[in-house]
Amino acid sequence: MKKILASYRMINILSLDVAAGAMICASFFAHLMNFVILPQGLISLGLTVWIIYTADHLLDAKKLKQDASTERHRFHQRHFKSLSALLLGALLIDLTQIYFIRSIVFVDGLRLAFLVGIYFLVQQRIGFLKELLGTLLYTGGVLLIPLSVNNQLSLPVILLILQFGITAWINLLLFSWIDKQRDEKDKHHSFATTFGLIVTQRILLFLFVTTASLTAIQLVMFPMASMATLILTLMTALLLLIFLKRSYFEKEDRYRLLGDAVFLLPILYILF
Question: How far apart are CA 74 and CA 70, in angstroms?
Answer without folding.
Answer: 6
